[in-house]
Amino acid sequence: MSLLERLNKDMLTAMKNKERDNLSVIRMVKASMQNEGYKLGRQELSDDEALTVLSRELKQRKDSYQEFKAAGREDLAEKLESEIVLIETYMPQQLTEEELESVVQETITETNASTKADMGKVMSAIMPKVKGKADGGRVNALVLKHLS
Question: Do the beta carbons of residue 89 and residue 13 sit within 8 Å?
Fold first, then answer.
């Protein structure tokens, strides 16, 4: 089942169960995917493109969550936290620290990187491998750790 099919199915379920918050989040994600499709000039997005949109939506919410927490707006932070949990259910299984460590080491070896100056080369090679499965900040920190 594709990501879009799963979203449509869950949207119908949320409508039937009168889950307004879930329905709202699913509709926002679907709208973002449709907008991305229009930008690309297509009706359907590939699963990889849909995952990119989903990752962007998740990142935006996590950033806003941090800002609301810092500003003391617990009411808004709680709402975003529930949205983040819902969106994460559509994301692929996240890599464990050991798995991510292994991918980072393999990529550093593949790219023959040895110093921090090679950081860009390593990051551009590793991010497609872990797309949607690991946060860019985690990857960046591990690459830095291994290159220093």
Answer: no
